[in-house]
Task: structure prediction
Amino acid sequence: MNRKEIRILELLPGRFGKQLQGELRTISLYDTPPYEPLSYAWGESSDEKTITLLEGNRKLVLRHDLYRALQRLRHRLRIRL
Result:
């Protein structure tokens, strides 16, 4: 990743309350990608949840408040960036 790139989370569709799934993508800022920024450092670090990343079936640790926000922001039928 270079200085003109960012990583974004593609939050896969799903129902509220179900496990979050997504993919991290590296995108060039020159491409002016459409995305919605969201803070990632909310809440106590002792209260953590995970999101499943499809590439490599890895887990990404999130603080509970961010996890809850993503649960509510996730679309039911389409990917959210």
